Fold Amino acid racemase.
Amino acid sequence: MKKLGLIGGLSWSSTARYYDLINRAVQRELGGLHSATLLIDSLDFAEVARCTSSNDWDCAAGHMIGAAKSLEAAGAEALMICANSLHKVASQIESSIGIPVINIIDEIGAKLKADKIKAVALVGTSNVMMDRDYRQKLVQTGGVSLLPADAELAGRIDRMVYDELAAGKITRDAERYMKSELTDIAKEEVQAVVLACTELELIVDVHANVLPIYDSTIIHAAAGARFILNG
């Protein structure tokens, strides 16, 4: 098996989900007592969030590059960033190391294209939903059109993620809010929803919605498992 490095802690609750999904995929494929060959550098999310909240992406990149170099030195043969928003600095990270970064946007786009999905709603924090670079890259890689960004929804998701979900706190109010929003989105002219926040799966049942839900965590983790198994 190949050795995969995860830059995690962004937040710890979603990193735990990555660890679970990747290990289950490897065990399912190989059987027995097999588990995934992983290295994890779990960052202090408070430090990284301090950078992103002030829109200081060079600061965020500094934390991420340090983790990437540590993982490469420890033997990782590829890296994954366990967060959507931090993919804003993915190219800076990749250019600082000698191993590939498995990009979450590329993987989502490839899945949408394979499923012949043409119109989607992108749902995540404001650093994703409102980010022109993320949206353009998804349009290019997936060959899709995107529903216009909803600033009010993005702001509410920010509060849920940073005040609750990143600390592992799950509330019925948050679950009800997301169910209502996804029901409203289903009335728009879209074929699917991209859940582009690695914490949102904690409060969204991806299998119980009117529209298909493309969960970025599940898609990205599957790509990580494929790398471990096949390189």
User: Anything to note?
Assistant: Residues 4-103+219-230 form a domain with the Rossmann fold fold (CATH 3.40.50.1860). The chain has a mean pLDDT of 94. DSSP finds ten helices and seven strands in the chain. The CA atoms of residues 160 and 174 lie 7 Å apart.
